[in-house]
Amino acid sequence: MKNVLVAKILYEIADLLEMEDVEFKPRAYRKAARSVEALSKPIEQVSAEGKLDELPGVGANIAKKIVEIIETGSLKYYEELRKRTPVDLEGLLSVEGIGPKTVKLLYTRLGVKSLDDLERAARLHKIRMIKGLGSKTEENILGSIELARSKKERVLLGSALPIAERISEGLKEAIAADGIVIEVEVAGSLRRMKETVGDIDILATCMQPRHVLDIFAAMRGVRKVLDKGETKCSVLLEDNMQVDLRVVEEKSFGSALMYFTGSKDHNIAMRRIAMEKGYKLNEYGLFNDTVQIAGRTEEEVYKHLDLDYIPPELREDHGEIEAAKKHELPNLIRYGAIKGDLHTHTKWSDGLQTIEQMAQAAEDIGYSYIAITDHYSRMKIARGLTELQLRNQMKQIDQIDGKLSGIRVMKGAEIDIRKDGSLDARKELLKELDVVVASVHGTFKQTKKEMTNRIISAMESGYVDVIGHPTSRKIGEKKPCEIDMERVFETSKRTQTYLEINSQPQRLDLDDANVRLALEFGCRLAVNTDAHNHEQLKNIRLGVAIARRGWAEAEDIITTQPLINLMKTLRKS
DNA sequence: GCCGTTTTCGGCCCGACTGTTTTCAGTCG
Question: How far is the CA of A383 from the C1' of B5 (A)?
Answer without folding.
Answer: 23
